[in-house]
Input
Amino acid sequence: MAAYEHLTVAARGKTARITLNHPERRNALSWSMLRDLHKALTEVAGSSATGITLAANGPVFCTGHDFADVLDAGPDDIHDLLELCTGVMQLIHSVPQIVVARVHGLAVAAGCQLVATCDLAVAGESAGFALPGGKGGWFCHTPAVPVARSVGRKRLMEMALTGDVIDARTAADWGLINRAVPDGELDSAVEELLARATRGSPASKALGKQALYAQLDRPETDAYEITGEVMAVSSQSPAAREGIASFLEKRKPEWPE
Output
């Protein structure tokens, strides 16, 4: 396995574990994290692994895009960042392995997008999920794409408009994740689900997974093109700039009129 800056990749029997490993930045999806993820998924895709567990180190799973990358970037740069992120999400769907998210702590914004994109997801009961742009200055346009396809329109609108955190039990009830389990049982629950999801012919499973996404998510490319463009442009709005700056400066935002 190759070496990575912000994650680790390890073989675990017949499967592989990719672990986000930048806890000091709350495993944010920075340029370097996204490049590492794309490289790691591509590497594992070409291996004999039958499944992938996507996990994280530190107190949270993932807090979404790294605002330090965003604040001083122009719309073209943000568009490129979002295209890279979309490429990672679509790669999760196209790799032949079954990808299971192992979620602890918070998974918000593009972190929630990452969970919703995985084929399967299991969370500890202390986990939380949110699209926080709804109560900030930069709306979660692209993260909403796979969340909508998991939870449906009304629940998506509640998450996207309020920005509130939903707990793991609610996320399971809404279909964002497969199940919520006591924190101490998270690893065993992930392993049990992955073992069941990867049994049978790997080649058949890979083809079946790709066929399912081909018919389920046919509108997704168009949705990503539209939301990516809007999100890139809106990153330059006064509200977005203030929301990002106040977050980085750890102060209460002063919203423009």
